[in-house]
Structure formats: C-alpha cells, structure tokens
Amino acid sequence: MIEEQAQVVRVESGEVWVETQRKSSCGSCAANRGCGTAVLSKVLGNRTTPIRVICDVPVGVGDQVVIAIREEALVRGSLAVYMVPLLGVLLGAMLGEWMAPQLGTAVEMSTIVGGITGMLIGLFWLRLFSRKIGSSPLYQPVVVKRVETLNQI
C-alpha cells in the first residue's frame, strides 16, 4: 500500500473527504534551479487536492489521517494514463501513413492527422475507462488510521 497523510475536511456516511498537500518529487537537490519539476512546483504552488476516501475509522473534521491505495492500482492507472494515448498516437500515425497513398494525400499530413486522431481516441477510451473503474474497490483510497497529534494526547 502507498500511504500519504491527509486532513479530513468533510465526513459522510462510510467515507470522508480529505485534502492532501501536493508535493514536488524533488526540490532539495543541487539541480533545483534548472530542474523542470522544481520550477513547475514553484509555479503551481502548494495547492491542496480534495479526495473522497472510504473510511471505517472514527474521524472528525480537522483530524489528520493516513490514507492508502494499493500499488497495483497505481501501476495500472499509470500504465493506462501514459500508454493508451501514446499507443493511440503511434497506431494512428502508422495508419495515416499507410492510408496516404489510397487517399491521395501527402504522407506527412496524413500521418499527423492519424496521430492526432489516434491520441483523441485513446483519450476518449481513457475517459470511459476511468468512469468504469471509479467505483471499483481496487482503485479507491482508504483511511488506514487516524494520526494522533500532541493536542489529542
């Protein structure tokens, strides 16, 4: 399980809404000034992200909790998000190049149009896939435990 600390902002029956702090993956290395990730992090700032989480632990608004998601869900989701549009671009471009002589168009233009069309089809499939898995327990984060703070001890 991949864990992250979050703060409860709303409590509902069987689930809670939490906010996590968006973090850069770096920022402390020597290449900080020239690093694209660090620059992007500074531009976007430290925004919070509200997330709906399944919760069986008694918590209240303002509590700090540890949320977790299965590694398998992260790997599958990452593969879908990155690979499906990329494969769409590649297959669409190859199909466009193959069809150019039959259509009597320039190969470059047909390849570009095919690649863009393939990417759009991949993104559309991804949208349908995300709706389908949205209710799957595998892809749902859960509250693992409530974090005891010094004020609560």
Automatic annotation (TrEMBL):
Task: Report the InterPro entries cross-referenced here.
Answer: RseC (IPR026268), SigmaE_reg_RseC_MucC (IPR007359)
Arranged from A to Z, the UniProt key words for this protein are: Membrane, Transmembrane, Transmembrane helix
Where, by residue number, does the polypeptide cross the bilayer? 79-100, 106-126
PANTHER family from the entry? PROTEIN RSEC
Q: Name the chain's protein.
A: Fis family transcriptional regulator
UniProt organism field: Solemya pervernicosa gill symbiont
